[in-house]
Amino acid sequence: MRVLMAAPSSPARLHNLAPFAWALRTAGHDVKIAGRPSFVEEILRTSSVAIELESGDEGALAESAALTGFAELWRPQVVVSDALAPAGTAAARAVGAVAVRVLGALDEPATDDTADVTLDTVPPSLRAGSGEVRAMRHVPYFGPVVVPNWLRRKARRSRVLLSLTDETLFGPLFDVVAGADFELVCAARIPAGVTMPANVRLVDSAPPAALLPTCAAVIHDGDAALALAAAAHGLPQLSLAESAIASRITAAGAGKTGSGEEARTLTTDEDLSRAATALREEIAALPAPRTVMAELLR
Predict the structure, then answer these.
(1) Which of 114, 118, 124, 236 ranks highest by number of CB atoms within 10 Å?
(2) Residues 77-106: b if buried by 16+ CB within 10 A, e if exposed
(3) DSSP classification of residue 52
(4) Buried b (16+ CB within 10 A) or exposed e, 19-49
């Protein structure tokens, strides 16, 4: 069977589609992913066959004559689209294919969804939107990585991954965690004048795919992909910035949102740990991409 996928120029959104693409390919189906010219290399990094579309809006794939044209030529039976790639649904309608929409941590279910089937990789307990959706297990993926040499040695104490995009947060957080009984690992440029505590480990590379299975907790500033990946690993987390997914993880008792003052007890709070484990078990119990794929194609 031929399956055409449509992705906007967002690595996080492409990575949410990739496990479903792999499930289809390993089941013997012909899968191709379409994107803007500037995004083709990113698609190829997922080991997928890429279709180069015309130049246009990078943030969303709302319209694409090239996508519809390719669909008319190739005649896929199914077209799978990210929530910000409605051009995929239009292409499906043009050729009479089944239109599938995939939601992730950055999306909300919609009552006006025009796809035939909507799959959601966010667990039901973290959803507040309405709409008819079919749950699919989230499989964390961040692109190709190499396990760093330093990670091949067992940690001497609990390890916490730190991932921040806002440099102003480092100083206040470091002041709080100084002397805490865990190792805070980060790969970042620390601003001048910020004192780094002895329990902070600055590394050249801290890929979440390699690091999360070794961690006891995660601290971030609202990264939705990292927040959902941490939830899938059953890790308590602290978000130093507000985001929809972080707020819901906090409401579920599996995380905290707010200032760095919450960081010191992140690895010792038993209630937090139990809730994070429950969230991991909920995600693990959802149908895997290969199961959803088999049900979809019956």
Answers:
(1) 236
(2) bbbbbbbbbbbbbbbbeebebbbbbbbbbb
(3) E
(4) bbbbbbeeeebebbbbbbeebbebbeebebe
> Domains in the chain, ordered, with CATH?
2-135 (3.40.50.2000), 149-284 (3.40.50.2000)
Q: What is the mean pLDDT of residues 16-23?
A: 97
* Distance from C-alpha of 12 to C-alpha of 183, rounded to nearest angstrom: 27
Selection from 32, 45, 46, 39 nearest residue 60 by Cα:
39
- Whether the Cβ atoms of residue 161 and residue 212 lie closer than 8 Å to each other: yes
- How far is the CA of 75 from the CAs of 29, 80, 99, 282, in angstroms? 14, 13, 13, 37
Residue 112 has a CB neighbour count (10 Å cut-off) of 5
The reported pTM is: 0.94
pLDDT tier at 129 (50, 70, 90 boundaries)? low
